[in-house]
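Duplicate of #3305? Posting structure anyway:
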């Protein structure tokens, strides 16, 4: 299994990505985030290490998420084994889920935030991931969840994105997570106002708990001061 969430805030260029899986090194292979540009995840029965490069180049040329996704999946003879989620700078999402992926395969796409997964213990894992994120960040979570309205984010929500991503993952894993067991988790946040946050738990019996422990260390005053001292450009 791999389950992922990506979020793009068009107003500020902030981009966030979260991933968890039953294998190892999920942060090094699955999610990719580029501030002011967009994000993608490449997962499924077999990830594709070079999808992100193609997606990024397409987004840099001004292509939509769907066009960028088409450019990497169309020539790929193994696309039936892939699941790829892309979001562009405007917050538009596009998804490819190949037919060879192992069930349960699920996805929830909204403007500016989307989640997808495969080999899930239950299709509600993806829904719980997205719904928790909306609840923690939006002024209209119910309307955004039912797709009656685009998400309206609360003022200042970006300052808590780290904790929001961890809590969203915890909720998803409580809903079932990977039917093989979840062993690795990672997140990345990029913005124009702060240095990137890139946290990875590569093999742990409780990766969400380990990720939360890392998040607490990031918020430690000494490390927070170090991050604040780094250049943003």
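Output from current build:
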């Amino acid at each position: 299994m791999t389950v992922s969430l990506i979020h793009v805030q068009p107003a500020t260029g902030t981009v966030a990505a979260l991933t968890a899986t039953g294998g190892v090194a999920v942060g090094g292979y699955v999610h990719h985030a580029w501030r002011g540009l967009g994000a993608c995840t490449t997962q499924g029965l077999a990830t594709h290490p070079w999808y992100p490069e193609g997606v990024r180049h397409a987004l840099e040329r001004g292509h939509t998420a769907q066009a960028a996704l088409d450019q990497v999946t169309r020539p790929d003879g193994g696309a039936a084994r892939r699941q790829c989620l892309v979001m562009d700078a405007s917050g538009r999402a596009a998804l490819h889920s190949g037919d060879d992926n192992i069930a349960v395969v699920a996805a929830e796409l909204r403007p500016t935030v989307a989640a997808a997964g495969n080999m899930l213990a239950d299709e509600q894992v993806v829904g719980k991931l997205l719904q928790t994120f909306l609840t923690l960040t939006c002024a209209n979570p119910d309307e955004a969840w039912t797709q009656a309205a685009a998400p309206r984010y609360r003022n200042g929500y970006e300052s808590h994105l780290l904790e929001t991503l961890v809590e969203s993952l915890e909720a998803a894993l409580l809903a079932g997570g990977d039917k093989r067991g979840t062993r690795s988790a990672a997140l990345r946040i990029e913005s124009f106002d702060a240095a990137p946050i890139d946290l990875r738990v590569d093999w742990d019996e409780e990766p969400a708990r380990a990720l939360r422990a890392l998040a607490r260390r990031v918020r430690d005053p000494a490390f927070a001061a170090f991050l604040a001292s780094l250049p943003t450009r």
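Confirmed duplicate; merging threads. DSSP finds eight helices and ten strands in the chain. The two ends are 36 Å apart (CA to CA).
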